Amino acid sequence: MIQVAVLGYGTVGSGVVEVIEKNREMVNKKAGEDLNVKYILDLRDFPGDPYENKVVHDFAQILEDDEVKIICETMGGVGAAYTFTKQALSAGKSVCTSNKELVAAHGPELLALAKAHTCNYLFEASVGGGIPIIRPLNYSLTAEHIEEIMGILNGTTNYILSKMEKEGADFDSVLKEAQEKGYAERNPQADVEGFDACRKIAILSSLMTGKNVDYNRIYTEGITKITSEDFAYAAFMSMSIKLLAISRDTGGRTLAMVAPCMISREHPLYMVNGVFNAVFVKGNMLGDSMYYGRGAGKLPTASAVVSDVIDCARHQGKVIMCFWDSEEAQLQGIDDTERKFFFRVKKSGEEKVKALFAGAEYVRLPELEEECGVITGTMKEKDFEALYEQLGEEKIGTRIRMEA
Ligand code: HSE
């Protein structure tokens, strides 16, 4: 029997207990030994909960119990979760987590600590919720040189953008509705400003390069400036607007960025709608592959945590290799990267656009008579920004990068 502890009895933590309970027979069979949740750590009590007698309030009780071999950290944040994870790994207890903030901030340190104490730090649930993506990168695609990872890694923003696209609604009203329905957080900043996707692409970029990609150095732009008019232009051009998290090998360096981008109907990520997430991976031997599913939610995320628990159970006394060194990856700044850009301009600014952006294409929508859309030729980000700035008051809304 392997004793397990769950830290944090919130949405994911209670899901972990539920998955272990509901799929007990299968989970035990695949783990090779019976698993038992011995403790649930939380500040609160849960009177009437079927597992209320497992709830404890002091982490020391778990740490000092030699029977506990695997800990699920589903608390979130980088405070107590960081301290408890370090203490657990130092005591030789494996930790499985859904905590993307902690993995992105301290991944290499925690992996090294696990290795030094012959246990494991696994984080399948930290990116893409229930979608297997960490394990494929770590185990399955090991013969590949990964050239690019492009992901829709945040369910909240994908839900908002999909609804704007489908209903022609504006950002604020869709966000409000999403909050009322509980799809978006009361404080949605981490999602809508792209910070959540940034942590997740930092983790994937680190696994792609084998070095550390510091999330603070990733160019991050959210979706708050995207309008229903932008979607009208996108639809006219058979395109969609998605919040993309990108990591691309640019020849020894890595471009990592998060931004809303236009993608064409032909791209596999085009059809990823609503709360769904997907990760598109390009390898130099395999070519394209895509991993799709529920990127958030109680049971999908808990399922990924429990898959890590099973992996830990199968590898007791062994360290599962994970290539993520503390050495900083060489990042490519966004300024020198090249692509096309879409923007809107007032009718009065068209002559100026023609003078500044030679070879640009124009998109005119009958319902928007006082303006037009512009698609530039392929150009460097810094060159585009310099010219775009010169349009001054003639600009409408924001510019959107065109990715695929
Ligand atoms: N807020 C996140 C999302 C939860 O919307 O995708 C999963 O990490």
Descriptive account of the structure:
With 404 residues, the chain is an alpha/beta fold. It folds into three domains: 2-130 and 298-314, Rossmann fold; 135-294, Dihydrodipicolinate Reductase, domain 2, CATH 3.30.360; 338-402, Alpha-Beta Plaits. 36% of the residues lie in helices and 25% in strands. The protein contains 14 helices and 17 strands. Strands 7, 8, 9, 10, 11, 12, 13, 14, 15, 16 and 17 form an eleven-stranded mixed β-sheet that branches. Strands 3-2-1-4-5-6 form a six-stranded parallel β-sheet, with helices on both faces. Helix 1 (11-22) packs across helix 12 (298-314), helix 4 runs parallel beside helix 5 and helix 7 packs across helix 8 (171-180). It starts with a strand and ends with a strand. The structure holds L-homoserine.
Name the average pLDDT.
97
Helical segment count: 14
How much helical structure, as a percent, in the residues? 25-40%
The first-to-last residue Cα distance is 51 Å
Sheet/helix structural class: alpha/beta
Q: How would you sum up the major sheet? A: 11 strands, mixed
Ranges with pLDDT <50 over ≥5 residues? none
Characteristics of this structure?
404 residues; alpha/beta; Rossmann fold; Dihydrodipicolinate Reductase, domain 2; Alpha-Beta Plaits; eleven-stranded mixed beta sheet; six-stranded parallel beta sheet; 14 helices; 36% helix; 25% strand; elongated; binds L-homoserine
